[in-house]
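Thread title: Can someone regenerate the structure for this chain?

I was given the following input by a collaborator and told the matching structure tokens would be attached. They weren't. Posting the sequence so someone can regenerate them.
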Amino acid sequence: MSIPSYSAPAWLSKTAPALFVLLWSTGFIGAKYGLPHAEPFTFLLIRLALVATLLTLAALVGRARWPSLRQSGHLAVAGLLVHAVYLGGVFAAIAHGLPSGMTALIVGLQPLLTAALASRLLGEQVALRQWMGLGLGLVGVGMVVWRKLSLDADPTAFLFALAALLGITIGTLYQKRFCASSDLRTGTAVQYGVCCLALGAVALSSESMHVDWAPTFIFALGWLVLGLSVGAVFLLYLLIRQGQAAKVASLFYLTPPTTALMAWVLFDETLPPLALAGFVVVAIGVALARK
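Best answer:
Regenerated them for you:
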């Protein structure tokens, strides 16, 4: 039996935005723990291969409906953009020395870019109030990451961050336009499987693929597999199916402040007054964009 396109318990529909922000925000934390023990594309290859295996087993046990060949093609395109290009770009940018704050700010342009493209590609009407909220959200993100902004990095790192921005933006729009009817288990398994082929080719050609299987790496890998690649991604696809693309994209503004709070707790990073004020600005902006 397949999961209907918009089927979800009422409690999950109500809590999905908050759960998504919380889980998605741990991505940078997981990368910080895991990247010292493996090169970026090797790390992602192992992560996505484990997720593809788990979802395939879950689909077989649940007798889920597998997509047609044509639908698999659409899923492959969306998956490569959302997972391979976005995650690969973020991991590679950080690995090439781009500060996390600058990475967050570049990728933080996604809600504005999504709103601009959604109005043209999906025919969604973005109200002036929403544009104001999206603009405020970006300002708030800048306030949060201000101390970590720096242009002193390998130019290649900026290109990777830009690729990540385009990947997540175009990928989410493509997912909403062409993949809304697919079963989440089988559809996502197809996406991760295709991404494994792409990331495997990149890792084999550019990295040593050596992995230090330290406890820290195993913990980070396990969390990124279950918390991010299953939990957060399923919630993202559910939100895309149920809501306007610009409203869903606005949630990404909340991830840098949430990540900053996590880093404050886990790594004793400071939270200056400007960052705290940025939290408030982001919250107001997201509220306006989603009202």
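The two ends are 35 Å apart (CA to CA).
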